[in-house]
Design brief:
This protein is of the alpha+beta class and about 400 residues long. It contains 12 helices and 12 strands.
Length: about 400
């Protein structure tokens, strides 16, 4: 690939990306000025002891759009084309979310800790593109996905408004300007603070069930049985139970059908329980769908997918019918992290993904994840139901519990 030298930082970059790379130096200067002003506004709001309309209005006016590599026509469209070509040669059915932008962790910005924020950005890109009601409430009707610093401030506002008190206490109500890792409950808190119906689902071994604040099969409006909670030793322990368990409550959610897909046989065991849940989620018969009979686009939002040490975004699921009568499932996942993020050139992971989809070569290794890859003892999902909560329902959303499924 032909390369050129940036006249500002003297780095060698692909010639096709030179103009964008050079312009990014000036964008960084604007971003630094905005961050300084945001810091001043936060200091003023913090010293007053409350977050009022004025400080939120200042945040709305100051927030900046997050940088990401824009894929012409969108990654989902490219992926759909590849899946349709693949389906000609096998007996498979795939269900996808609609439009999603890929937000990648960037060198010297958030590599190693920013995956949770990047997944929130991916979810936000879908909601802004597909849900009119979400566009009217998210991020002050800005119409774009803010960068991490402003998402951090929106989360602080959620805490200050009473969402997820245990989580707020864990971070001492402060996360702006830090590199703290976040997880599913922070994702749910942020979206719920805008009235979105974000729900949390836990998957784990039977022996850890009592550590969750959840009632299997519960529905919105029913009382939640309090389970035992255990202190944790680090920020990631509250997302995935290791030996010490969890310390946070989670909000009960509308129960999705806990059955297997129509293509499953026999009793599901282990990770297949999670796979069946994801299939049921995307294939809900009450949803609007489009596409061919083998590659379907659902109006279901992507899933925030958390496990020990990392989180990703599930954008769909595929099932292949094997000749022996069994089914092979693959989760379709966008990962905000990539080994290539250790390089100096930003967005190289997204560029590589786009290229592999355009030439229909190698994309399977970047997106598909089979049941055999689900080796963690526990997983956690966040999904977002349609509609906007208000009144008493919005107040109930301040308490975050979950529904538990045994792996």
């Amino acid at each position: 690939m032909e390369s050129s030298v940036c006249p500002f930082c003297h780095l060698s970059v692909p010639s096709s990306e030179l103009q964008w790379h050079a312009n990014s130096h000036f964008e960084d200067e604007d971003k630094e000025a905005n961050d300084m002003e945001l810091g001043n506004q936060i200091h003023i709001a913090s010293s007053s002891g409350s977050t009022d309309v004025v400080s939120i209005s200042s945040l709305i006016g100051l927030q900046t759009r997050s940088n990401f590599y824009h894929v012409k026509d969108g990654l989902i469209s490219l992926l759909r084309n590849c899946l349709e070509l693949e389906a000609r040669h096998n007996s498979s059915v795939t269900i996808l979310s609609g439009y999603v932008d890929h937000f990648q962790s960037l060198p010297s910005v958030d590599v190693g800790w920013g995956c949770g924020w990047r997944n929130i950005q991916m979810l936000s890109s879908h909601l802004l593109a597909h849900r009119k009601e979400a566009r009217k409430v998210l991020f002050g009707e800005s119409g774009f996905v803010p960068d991490i610093a402003f998402l951090q401030r929106w989360l602080e506002i959620a805490w200050e408004s009473g969402f997820d008190p245990p989580g707020a206490q864990h971070f001492n109500c402060k996360i702006y300007g830090t590199n703290h890792r976040i997880g599913t409950t922070e994702c749910a808190s942020l979206f719920r603070s805008f009235g979105l119906r974000a729900r949390v689902v836990d998957f784990g071994p039977k022996e850890s069930e009592l550590l969750y604040l959840s009632v299997p099969g519960s529905t919105l409006g029913q009382p939640v049985k309090q389970r035992n909670a255990v202190r944790v030793s680090g920020p990631m322990d509250k997302y995935v139970h290791r030996q010490q368990g969890l310390n946070k409550g989670r909000h009960f959610c509308h129960s999705l059908h806990n059955g297997k897909s129509d293509n499953s046989k026999g009793k599901s065991e282990g990770p297949q329980v999670l796979i069946d849940w994801v299939w049921s989620y995307f294939s809900d018969k009450g949803l609007t769908i489009s596409g061919s009979s083998q590659v379907v686009v659902s109006d279901r939002a992507p899933l925030y997918f958390q496990h020990d040490g990392h989180s990703r975004t599930i954008i769909g699921i595929q099932v292949k019918h094997q000749k022996n009568g069994t089914n092979q499932f693959n989760l379709l996942i966008l990962d905000p992290s990539d080994v290539s993020t250790t390089l100096v050139i930003p967005f190289v992971g997204t560029v590589a993904l786009e290229r592999s989809l355009k030439i229909n070569v190698g994309w399977q290794k970047l997106i598909k994840r089979g049941v055999h890859t689900l080796k963690k003892p526990q997983y956690q999902l966040c999904y977002i139901d349609p509609g906007i909560a208000s009144g008493e329902e919005l107040n109930e959303l301040k308490t975050i519990n979950s529904i538990f499924f045994e792996l």
